Amino acid sequence: MRKKLCYLSFVCVMTQMGQAKTVDDLILLTKSFGQQNRFRVTTNGNNKIKYIHGLLSEPNYQDVHSIQNFLKVYKRAFGFRSVEEDLVLEKTFQSSSGQSHFTFNQKYKGLHVLYHDIKVHTNRNGQISSISNQFADNIILDITPSIAIQTALATVKPLVSNRTYLKNEQLAVYVEKENSFLVYELNLAGFPISKTFLVDAHSGKVIKEIMQTVDDGPAVGQGMTNLGIFVDELQMYEGSGFLGPDLWPDYLCEEFCWEYGDCDNENYDNCELSFDQGSCDEGFIEDCSGECWNDEHFIYSFWALGDGACHTNAQPDHPNTDSIYYLVDQSAPDLGHLYTLSSYSTNFSSIFWTASEDTIFDSDDPSTSERSGAETHYYLRRGLDYFYDEHDYEGVDDSGRRLGVVVDFIGCNAYYNHLFDVTSYGLGGECNNWITHPWSADPDIVGHELAHGITFHSSGLLYQNHSGALNESLSDIFGYLIEYNITGNTSWGMATEIFIHPEGNSLRDLSDPPLYSDPDRLFGPFYVAQTSYDNPNPSNDYGGVHTNSGIPNKVFYLLVEGGTHYGWEIEPLNDDIDISREMAAELVFVWNTQYLSATDDFWDARAKMLLVAADYFPDDPGVWWSVFNAWSSVGVYPQVDISIPSGYFIPGVDTVNVTADIGSYGEEISSLSLSITSSDSTILDTLEMSQLNDELYDASYPLPDHEDLFYFSLHLDVMDTLTIDHGSIGQLITAGPIEVYDFSFLGDPVILPGETLAMSVELLNSGVSGIVPGVTIEAIDHDTTCLASVSNNSLFYGNMDPQEILEQEAGFFMISIDDDCDTGHEAYVVLNIMVMSDICWTDTISFAIGEQLIIDEESIPKEFSLNNSYPNPFNPITTLSYELPKNAMVNITIFDLMGRIVNNLVSIRQDAGYKSIKWNATNNQGQPVSAGLYLYTIQAGEYRQTKKMILLK
Length: 953
Fold this sequence. Notes:
By secondary structure, this protein is α+β, with helices and mostly antiparallel strands.
């Protein structure tokens, strides 16, 4: 068998990004404006700015052009190359208090990078005062899709129940855990559930499934609620002359004829079916409200059933009786119209208008839904008024988007469906061990769902994991605030009013989350651990969105009322609780609508709330410290900026240097220590870190002379009374190295142009004592001049014992060869070899087009030959290959430039054939080898040849 393999070191190449300025320049800039605003900066693992606060510009930076110029100057510090190519302005916002906010989405080769943005904020003087940076760097991606969007749509369409509509789609880039994917983002609207899917545009695999339906649990009239509370001002509409509604998609409009009917319920038999409708892009059609939708042709066939007219709506026909009053509120068009309907005792299969023959909606017949409709209609109007009066925000989207309402469906729940902007409230009754009123009866439930709409239209926090818990918490917070605004109720219990049994029960409690089995501290009791986050689904509450909301809920409570929590003293934002509540409300509203981003976790949320505290309350440093202490008290400590190497290191030779920047803790640190733990959880050593300056500490650890996986953790003594543990801050491995031992193609075919091959790879643990755990490989590069594609999947090997040779547990790399690839061309594929997701080695395999890997043993070279080493330069392994036309005594020797023997690689009699041997310069006869130029010589019989190679380090 003759196979060509070569070994490449993983080398990071730093390129100079022009003359762009750095963090140090920003520090000098802030100091030039005086010391009244403390400079704070947090960097990511690539030493690029993640969060920064200070005075960062002259006044009058309220326009986009000035902000873009600032980013151009400091692009190097933020990690991007070009404002024009890497960023696109998504939105701007000028607050009534004078601040400006700018959000830029990331682009990659013209495509939107989902959930990655840069947000720039100014103070009242128009000076840039804070920036949050979630730019994803090191994206390497083929942006030409391998599958059609119709294929992706067919995959996900069955995953949304009932009738589904593709509201919109885009080809985009998605980055997760340093991996980049070309995806189709498909927004599928269904009722009651809507979802967004990210489908890999190369493999067709569903990368992520995101819930877009959250659950939680002009005439003026009057009404009665289910709790017997009289509502003395209820906006409604007398007669059928009101505009709308447009709650669900009505695909077909009068001005566009179709063979299956139209929105006017007339037949158009002579029409030709076409997707060219209205102002929408090709493949989309415009509905009666002006929105664009897409679906396959076959989905329209069921519209023709029965009367030949299309019925695309679940909502009832527009009322035609003028003597009836309907719960339609068009009194404040700037805040959005309200349309309230009922699905009494059904699962949305029957929907009717909530109506009354007079202006008092008080019927005690539950089937009319008069009381449920009246209370929901009233609470939503008051909620919209609250956001406008207190936060200058107009409707759920700040543009007066209409809001649909459905009450009394079967169930003990409430929903907000983002893709339709429809909120729904269950009928209640017997719910497991509960008995409840209709879920519309409590103003904090209605306010909770309304706040979901605002969150979806502003920060867009994804409804899963930490971001989903923040989404839920914000709804709890504004549900509490809206109920207080309506009733003056200061109870921190959520949904208390709906419970008949057990009386006084709540769904959650913001002041004491553990009371209802929610955590009040990270990693404490009831916390849903991140082990479930890789697969958020209903069984784990989408990664703990309701449960873990207790953590930010507790933060808000502490900001309003203050207190001592797990040893931390938190001062309320103001000694007057009413003022404190108002300040906290403004803080979290601005935090949600202007600072938070879709995928933020608790640490991002903490850092951004501190930015809001500094930007919006610059003259009150106590606000900043209250936010700092509140988040710290729930276990979301400042993330220390730690510099620790990862990957493969030589045992007994290398020393690991660790630095920690604790600037985010201020002057509260009294000492730092570093612990090193082996793979069997034995603590090998604990080192006190040395203080280099006010904010920087370091420690050095000479690696012991044995092969193992080492974990590092950090311990901080804060205020002499509290020890904070930052566990698993990094890992490295001294076992191995792992290298490609062999590879083959399924069926051992002749490698011909136009073929698609399934490649299997064997790995070797060339270490002598240590197990290498969790080994995977992935293809990162290939010969694009000859190979049309190489699949980007990972192959898993698991744990590898010393000297063990393993083939992947399952799967193959799929390689497609171009039709016009020349026979004899040497093609290559580059592989990353990873340990526990860390890239430790990179290896390269190569093969000749037109050959078969299994070679006839009688095939003998015609002459002696010593080939060039590959790779060259190398670090730390290279392959020397040679050809013997006859049996011979072979000596291969490596010399340095002084003529000294470095290694006798081969000294043996060998049979004729194609030969190769690897030289590992990291463990050369027990001694490390310095970087430099080396000579290698072959002596085979009378044949002698010498060549050069370069070792890099």
